[in-house]
Amino acid sequence: MRKAIYKPPKAIRGGIPICFPQFGSHGSLEHHGFARNRFWSNDTDPPPFPTNSKSFIDLILKPSEEDMPKWPHSYEFRLRVALGTGGDLMLTSRIRNANADGKPFTFTFAYHTYFSVLDIGY
């Protein structure tokens, strides 16, 4: 990660590529959302997440003033990143509507993963 460069508004390369909230056309910055361009905080009061791992971190993302013009909803995006006993990486996401008025809103999100392959001919 030493070669990763963080220069907003571009997404950092590497890490966990979370696309939230997804809106707009495919290929646009909005399609990938803003979560991957934000600093997340340690979640000091996480809800119970089922996990068999002893090695994990709980993260939380809440809206910022910068998000409001394009995404006028209050939310809490919680993410547990856990390392399994066999070295497997496990991600558990929970997104909560935190709007004071309780009105529902629609959203989509995705993990935009990249896999290293030896030969794309298969």
From TrEMBL:
Native organism is Salix suchowensis
**Which Pfam families does the UniProt record give?**
Aldose_epim (PF01263)
Q: What is this protein called?
A: Glucose-6-phosphate 1-epimerase
Report the InterPro entries cross-referenced here. Answer: Aldose_1/G6P_1-epimerase (IPR008183), Gal_mutarotase_sf_dom (IPR011013), GH-type_carb-bd (IPR014718)
Quote the SUPFAM superfamilies the UniProt record gives. Galactose mutarotase-like
Sections of the chain in a coiled coil: none
Q: What domain of life is recorded for the organism?
A: Eukaryota
What taxonomic ancestry is recorded?
Answer: Eukaryota, Viridiplantae, Streptophyta, Embryophyta, Tracheophyta
